[in-house]
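Re: zinc ion structure - here you go.
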Amino acid sequence: MEETNKNIIKEQIITDIKSLKKQIEMLKDKAALTAPDCSRCDLERSEALLDAEIMNKILNESIARLARLEYALSQVDSPDFGICIECENDIPVERLKIRPESVRCVACENAK
Ligand SMILES: [Zn+2]
């Protein structure tokens, strides 16, 4: 991979990690606020539970993506970075710029 592209992707990973960490903190705060409150009426409680469920789902996905991004950052200088773990072809740089945590090319990702 070209050094310029690698640097762009590295920057992208760092930016994504920063915004994800912010998002995770925000979601944690919100999840704490909407924790079921027994003094509310049932309708409000079920709505709050639904919100909390959705928020927890987003929170878990964000935490999982953060782990993948941190792994990508630790691998970005390795010669194997950007190589598909399935077919060992190069993952297109354009794909890595959008999803730097990708470990598969589009074809292998779809065939999964
Ligand atoms: Zn592949």
